[in-house]
Specification:
The chain is an alpha+beta fold and 301 residues long. The chain has four domains: 5-45 and 272-287, no CATH class; 47-57 and 187-267, Efflux pump adaptor protein, beta barrel domain (Elongation Factor Tu (Ef-tu), domain 3); 64-89 and 157-180, OB fold (Dihydrolipoamide Acetyltransferase, E2P) (Beta Barrel); 92-153, Helix hairpin bin (Helix Hairpins, Orthogonal Bundle), CATH 1.10.287.470. It has helices at 21-26, 93-121, 127-152, and strands at residues 5-8, 13-15, 36-38, 40-62, 68-73, 80-81, 86-90, 155-157, 162-164, 174-175, 182-197, 209-214, 217-229, 239-247, 258-275, 280-282, 285-287. It has a six-stranded antiparallel beta barrel. A four-stranded antiparallel β-sheet has the order 8-7-5-10, with no helix packed on it. A hairpin with a 2-residue loop joins β16 and β17 (285-287).
């Protein structure tokens, strides 16, 4: 295990185990065992430890846009589903009949318009009659399109790939617009929201790596990438809200998990370092004992 280190600027080796200067002087002529550590030049990293919450990359509760009775449930709870796959079908008999009626009206309007256009091309019809037929055709086409859209909305589809939650409906239920059917969550990639004090604003930027640990996997370290920084600081806590992305191909992480972040704020600078145990108290002062000193004494670092 690497010992904690403190910064120094001079010396090649220092004593790390020290009884006391007076004890050594009292036993003059006797060799006392000590531990010695070399002064090393070490790369320094300025870190900040904080906590955050994992969130789904995308999440939505599927709801019908039109009222209808549940005819078929086409999904299994807790199972993955592909984007565009059918989730639920509502009884569509009424909307199928409306579409058939709209198609008939559209066909009739098209025939009327063609007849008026042929008559007008021979100089026998009126321009007003042709305009009215054209308007009826456009209205009939719009009615057909509206009926088709309503029929399509009787089938719910997954808007994106993900994992479905627990269903909240049963076959035969009469649903109203906005009733909850099932939650869909995308977990192949997760978002991580966390905060840092505003004084560190200049030390973070998009693309920065974010080491993450969670209680569920204490022996694993996950790595995310910072991609968004809220432009306005939190006035209450004087902090910045940051968001990172984490890959989650093996589905080890779940939305809502508590996360610990060890964010590297600055790196690249170096300094001479020694183990923390080498800092010796002598009265009101603290210092070092050089290992090559003929007369051991605590010297200011």
């Amino acid at each position: 295990m690497m010992l904690p280190k403190a910064f120094v600027t001079t010396g090649l080796a220092v004593v790390t185990t020290w009884i006391s200067l007076s004890s050594i002087q009292a036993q003059e002529g006797f060799a006392l065992p000590v531990e010695v550590a070399a002064v090393e030049r070490t790369a320094l990293e300025r870190r900040i430890e904080t906590v955050g919450t994992l969130r789904a990359d995308e999440t939505v509760v599927l709801r019908p846009e039109l009222a209808g009775r549940v005819e078929k449930i086409l999904f299994d709870e807790g199972q993955p589903i592909a984007a565009g796959a059918k989730v639920l079908i509502l009884d569509a008999d009424i909307h199928e009949a409306e579409l058939t009626d709209a198609k008939a009206r559209s066909l009739l309007a098209r025939s009327e318009y063609q007849r008026n256009r042929d008559v007008s091309s021979k100089g026998l019809g009126s321009a007003q009659g042709l305009d009215r037929a054209r308007a009826e055709l456009l209205r009939a086409r719009a009615g057909e399109k509206l009926a088709r859209v309503r029929l399509d909305k009787m089938t719910l589809h997954a808007p994106f790939s993900g994992i479905l939650g627990l269903r909240r409906v049963s076959p035969g239920d009469l649903l109203q617009p906005g009733d909850e059917v099932v939650e869909l969550v995308a977990v192949d990639r997760l978002k991580l929201d966390f905060q840092i004090p505003e004084r560190h604003a200049a030390s973070v930027q998009a693309g920065q790596k974010v080491p993450v640990r969670v209680d569920a996997w204490p022996d694993r370290q996950f790595e995310g990438e910072l991609y968004a920084i809220v432009p306005q600081a939190n006035e209450g806590g004087r902090s910045l809200v940051l968001r990172a992305h984490l890959g989650n191909e093996d589905k080890a992480l779940r939305p809502g998990m508590f996360a610990r972040i060890d964010l590297i704020m600055d790196s690249g600078s170096t300094a001479l370092t020694i183990p923390e145990q080498a800092i010796m108290p002598e009265g009101e002062q603290r210092g070092l004992v050089p290992a090559n000193s003929e007369s051991p004494s605590v010297q200011a670092a």
